[in-house]
Amino acid sequence: MWRYVLRRLIESAVTLVLVTIVVFIGVRALPGDPARALAAEESDPETIAAIRAEYGLDQPIPVQYVRYVGKAVQGDLGTSARTRLSVTETIGHALPVTLQLATFAIVVAVLIGVGAGVVAAVRRRTASEWVANSVALLGLSIPNFWFGLMAVLIFAVAYPILPASGFVSVFDNPVESFRHLLMPAIVLGSGLAAVIMRQTRSAMLEALSADYVRTARAKGLGGTQVVLGHALRNSLIVVTTIVGLQLGLLISGAVVTEQIFVLPGFGKLTIDAVFTRDYPMIQGVVLVTATAYIGINLLVDLLYSVIDPRIRVGGRVT
Amino acid sequence: MSKLLTVDSLTVRFSTEDGTVLAVDGASFAVAEREVLALVGESGCGKSVTALALTGLLPGTAAVSGSVHMGGQNLRGLPEARLRAIRGRDIAYVFQEPMTSLNPVLTVGRQIGEVLRRHQRLSGAAAKRRAAELLELVGIPLPVRRLSEYPHQLSGGMRQRVMIAMAVACRPRLLVADEPTTALDVTVQAGVLDVLRTLRAEIGTAILLITHDLGVVADIADRVVVMYAGRTIEEAHAEALFARPSHPYTRGLLDAVPNPARHLDGGLREIPGRVPQLSDSPDACTFADRCARADTTCRTRRPSLDPGPAGHPVRCWHPLPVPAAVTTA
Amino acid sequence: MTLELVPVKETGPAAPAPPGSRRRALRRVLRNPLAALGLVIVVVALLAAALANLVTPFPYDRTDFSAALQPPSPAHWFGTDELGRDQFSRVIFGLRASVEVGVMSVALSLVVGVPLGLLAGFYGWLDPVVSRLTDTLLAFPFLVLAVGLAAIVGPSLTIATIAIAAAQIPAVVRVTRSETLHLREMDYVAAAIADGASDAVLLGRHILPNAVNALIVQATVAVPAAIIGESVLSFLGLGVRPPTPSLGIMLASAQPLFRDGPWLVVFPGVAIVLLTLAMNLVGDGLRDALDPREVRR
Question: What are the pLDDT digits (tens) for C14-71?
Fold first, then answer.
């Protein structure tokens, strides 16, 4: 099993390096002179040249890359060209917002998704299954941002019970935080819930028709025990992998939600950075996102090996 | 010997996308205490469905009629809760595919423990001890270690023994074994059959053995019921069946077993044609199309199960005569 | 944007399709009422988009300030926006952009992804390389990719198509690779090798046709997601350039006005939802019909 862990770690590291290289080069493909962007308006060529030297922008690219990586490892991601603030600090302020939103969204998505999926699988050919399926289908077909707009229209404008925008940290005021994050979380989590529901249902259906479930019933075990203890346990493996994959997409999905509900989060930071050619910020943002995504994937893989003993204790997964 | 289980006119119909399929057609037989009854037939003859129907383990698409009597009550009429008490405790199952019949993400110990907890309220250390005893009973070395292992870490033969251990955990009165050796290597098969024999001796359980392998039947069965297209067509003690088969189909099955001595001349003997898939019970002999002895009666009237020339019940209008040379004891 | 990656497990590895099975599958889809309904909606939408010039009562950029910000009425079925443009016409034209991008991006992702997947599955030494590349692509936040491309070249329909295609490629590669890995163990492949078939023939004639089922399933999930993706990009200003209408752009301009003109938000959104819902229904129907358990009949 440790060989597996090691292999995954190496793969993740390689991917991360590749991503940083691509971003580094890509950012430099953006039109506009970074030195000029860093300098104040209407600076003379000498100032610009000085800035270029100061930031090491006149060095060959590989050298710049190495310097960047070296500093990044120490936590210094450079300075924003737009705000002159530390990239790390800015990200540090924006990230918790998105993290709270994402966590809330994931919790909502998992609860609804797994619950609906199990119900749909167990209560086949009944009204409940049809309802669950339809809801999942809708969740997949409704674009986040439109859902968000409609939600604001209904719950903030027509029947104002929830705030239309703004962010309150859960550590400051849990109740207000809940009120502000409820709509965004549901909007953000809806797509994920739909995917989870379908995967859970499909995995459960397969598990319920498996031989070992027949054995369990033949042993005299009751319905609930069979469903939860046997079928669900096996389904969770597949579900975990899928959820893990989707989490990464959640991060970019948050961008739109943050736009609509005006949450000063990571997504908004990303968009602004690219639109304003703030290349240190772009690099920082992509680095953090990619690290998070790769990290999550790695975690999910390792979690997978814990849940599925076939991987953990050797032997082949048939 | 008293009758442990009596099956009477069991009929099972499945509703499928293509219409109704008649899987079991009025099957009747009985299993005595401590006896090994083999239910024999080709794939698709309804034997597995019969086995599952005994304790109501068939899916919702199945319509079952007939009766199954055990211990003075008709299992068919019992509510699900009562059936659950019987499954695993009075009637236990061993299935064909040990790899897929065991839950891959639970340890062997836990899966055996489930049965103990359900029917005997054992848990914790007591359950572990009992589970280890059971593993030893079925001949698994180092039983305590096995408890914490997962199914995929065991070989096919060992997995099947684990299945058997799970099944006999509560000393059931009837063990239903559905093709227990089919998925195993020949060398391993013998071991599993040995285990079944030992269990019958030590626990006194009767065994309903479902198989299409006549070699297994010869090895371990006391009596045999032959099924074809959902109907029971012959019933006899094992040696009688092999020596004096009455139904042409049984004869065909016996002939089809590859035997180098007998087949050097012409090759393997097959039964021409295929097992029909029926949607209704025709008023005719279902084997008529494949039978060399069939006539108009066979095609227009359903034969009933009556004593035949060899002295045991057979469902045939023209059962085979007894070979002259064998009439002497 | 959630991209639903259909794991191969859900559909099962595609069994070699017996002849005529795909036709049978199509018939099975049509028998399913929901899928049939979806198909009807999709066809109607496609026709409307293709014949937009004939179907719409007004040109999409015709402004009429005297009729600005009107709620739905017999003259303007979906109402008008702040410039007096008829919303119904704009929605129809917007559908066109959505469908174009949706289909083209998926097609592009297939063109790039399938060969990569085939190669990765077939040649073991190539596998890690391709896998690292797709992982890298996958690790890029989709929107950063799109925004970056838009920043370099300028936003346009093409950029949106490429960005969405890039986001879909990893899934296509994964599915193809998975199918290839499974199919190359099949007996008929071994038989073909024994007959002296070249790698190209193996891939082209034996493996690829049998992987198509799984790819069809992937595509039916990808197109609706791509359509939503296009609307997201347009919403953020990264896709189609005005005045060409796109459902996303319409929603973007509707956002500040939603208190005064809620219909501006409702109709374009409903159009997107209907189209993707219909496609998802068809996709589900296709998926059920192509289920290997059915195909084997």
Answer: 444 455 556 666 666 677 777 888 888 888 888 888 887 777 777 777 777 777 787 8
Structure tokens at C171: 């899934």
Residues B203 and B271 in one domain: no
Q: Is the ipTM of this complex over 0.85?
A: no
Any CB–CB contact under 8 A between A28 and chain B? no
Same domain, B38 and B86: yes
Q: Which of A23, A140, A192, A204 is the best substitution to test chain C (most C C-beta atoms within 10 A)?
A: A140
Q: Are residues B196 and B294 both part of a single domain?
A: no
Instruction: Residue B152: list chain A partners with CB under 8 A.
Output: 309-310, 315-316, 318
C119 assigned to some structural domain: yes
Of B203, B226, B249, the residue that ends a domain is: B226
Half-sphere exposure of B240 (CA within 13 A, CB side): 18
Whether residue B153 lies within 8 A of chain A, CB to CB, comes out as: yes
Interface of C with A in 169-198 (CB under 8 A): none
Q: If contacts are CB pairs under 8 Å, which of residues 74-103 in chain A contact chain B?
A: none
Calculate how close chain A gets to B174, using CA atoms only, in Å: 13
Q: If DSSP states are collapsed to H, E and C, what string results for chain B? A: CCEEEEEEEEEEEEEECCEEEEEEEEEEEEEECCCEEEEECCCCCCHHHHHHHCCCCCCCCEEEEEEEEECCEEHHHCCHHHHHHHECCCEEEECCCHHHHCCCCCCHHHHHHHHHHHHHCCCHHHHHHHHHHHHHHCCCCCHHHHHCCCHHHCCHHHHHHHHHHHHHCCCCCEEEEECCCCCCCHHHHHHHHHHHHHHHHHHCCEEEEEECCHHHHHHHCCEEEEEECCEEEEEEEHHHHHHCCCCHHHHHHHHHCCCHHHHCCCCCCCCCCCCCCECCCCCCCCCHHHCCCCCHHHHHCCCCCEECCCCCEECCCCCCCCCHHHCCC
Q: Final residue of a domain: which of B192, B226, B260?
A: B226
CATH of the domain at C116: 1.10.3720.10
Residue C179 vs residues B258, C12, C15: alpha-carbon distances, Å = 40, 10, 10
* Residue C86 DSSP one-character state: B
**Distance (Å, whole) CA A61 – CA A28:** 9
Where are any strands of DSSP class E within chain A?
none
Tell me which chain C residues have a C-beta less than 8 angstroms from the C-beta of A152.
258
pLDDT digits (tens, 9 = 90+) for A132-146: 888 888 887 888 778
Report pLDDT for A92: 85
- Cα separation, C210 vs C212, in Å, equals 5
Which domains can be identified in chain A, with CATH numbers? 2-73 (no CATH), 96-307 (1.10.3720.10)
Q: Per the confidence metrics, is the pTM higher than 0.80?
A: no
A249 touches chain C (CB under 8 A): yes
> Total domain count for chain C?
1
Nearest CA-CA distance, residue C270 and chain A, Å: 9
Closest CA–CA distance from residue B287 to any residue of chain A (Å): 32
Cβ under 8 Å to A: C residues 195-254: 224, 228, 231-232, 235-236, 251, 254
User: 């023939």: which residue's tokens?
Assistant: C201
CATH number at residue B207: 3.40.50.300
Chain A residue numbers touching B99 (CB-CB < 8 A) = 318
Q: Which range has the top average pLDDT, A259-263, B220-224, C291-295? A: B220-224
Q: Are residues B96 and B235 in the same domain?
A: no
Q: Which residues in chain C touch residue A11, judged by CB atoms under 8 angstroms apart?
A: 131-132, 135
Residue C165 near residue A289, CB atoms below 8 Å? no
- Which residue range is the domain that position C165 belongs to? 82-295
Provide φ and ψ at B29, rounded to 5°.
Answer: -165, 175
